[in-house]
Specification:
By secondary structure, the protein is α+β, with helices and mostly antiparallel strands. 25% of the residues lie in helices and 28% in strands. It is built from eight helices and ten strands. Strands 1, 2, 3, 4, 5 and 6 form a six-stranded mixed beta sheet that branches. Helix 7 crosses helix 8. The radius of gyration is 19 Å and the shape is globular.
Length: 287
């Protein structure tokens, strides 16, 4: 095997996000449901025998040392692999949106290079590498919609009904650190259960970060107000500036998207397209 082309890296939405506390080390305790959607980046991988790692940006330019290169390097270092790769990245998922685009790219990179380089690492071994890259990477490696708790390390698969969503990303982004360090952030949401969520999957809970995000980025408030003007119940996803709202069957946006914004009608995914790319944990030959 010399190459893997058209490898998908799907985004996610946080159907809700509650901040329930803060640990002594400063990390925030969360509850959320992460849901995969069909808005995705596409990655291409060609094996290099010289051990070098290179990247080609096929759409918008990425930072010089983005998460795909960092993931590839981490996999080399963890395994002692002497092979390299040239990685093409067609970026579609917006940055600083709260949709996990970078983490998803890293996860797909780990899965693809594990296969391309013949390493045979199982899911748990890849998750250990992925967690050091970002808290959301293990979710994408597991590849199923999930109830997420703690600081993101507790991941429990959940069933989410099929649905359609209008996802809107205003021009500006939001930095996660700016929100979580803000003194006005509400950090004492009551704990919830999976049963609470299951009773109303697309209507349960809130995003605890939303009020601070509105203050830091008026565009977030403008996007939520734009959804509301169409009779849609919008909320922010994650800690970025993207917002979303569930749609009824065949429903579309009734107004033009403001200039400079990105909008897409997305469906959710039952599983990640790369589920099964890593050996099961009882059959790994390495790690």
């Amino acid at each position: 095997m010399l190459a893997l082309y058209d490898v998908p890296a799907p985004a996610k939405l946080n159907l809700f996000l509650h901040v329930t506390g803060r640990r002594p080390d400063g990390y925030h305790l969360l509850q959320s449901v992460f849901m995969l959607i069909d808005w995705h980046d596409t990655l291409h991988f060609e094996r290099r025998s010289d051990g070098a790692l290179s990247r080609e940006d096929l759409a918008e330019p990425l930072p010089a040392d983005d998460l795909t290169l960092r993931a590839a390097r981490a996999l080399q270092q963890a395994t002692g692999c002497t092979q390299g790769a040239h990685i093409g990245v067609y970026k579609r998922v917006p940055a600083q949106a709260g949709m996990g685009g970078g983490s998803s790219d890293a996860a797909s990179c780990l899965l693809a290079l594990n296969r391309l380089w013949g390493l045979g690492l199982n899911g748990s071994a890849l998750e250990r590498i992925g967690l050091a890259l970002g808290a959301d990477v293990p979710f994408f490696l597991r590849g199923r919609n999930a109830w997420v708790e703690g600081i993101g390390e507790s991941i429990t698969p959940v069933q989410v009904p099929a649905g359609r969503f209008l996802v809107v990303k205003p021009a500006g982004g939001l930095a996660t650190a700016d929100i979580f360090r803000h003194p006005a952030l509400k950090r004492d949401c009551d704990g919830a259960t999976i049963a609470d969520f299951a009773a109303s999957p697309f209507g349960f809970g809130v995003n605890s970060l939303e009020s601070v995000a509105r203050w830091l980025s008026p565009e977030v408030g403008a996007a939520l107000d734009w959804l509301g003007s169409q009779g849609l119940q919008g909320r922010m996803t994650g800690s970025g500036s993207a917002v979303f709202a569930p749609l009824a069957p065949h429903q579309q946006a009734s107004q033009a998207v403001p200039a400079g914004w990105t909008a897409r009608v997305c469906g959710n995914l039952e599983v990640h397209p790369l589920v099964g790319w890593a050996p099961s944990d009882d059959s790994s030959v390495a790690g």
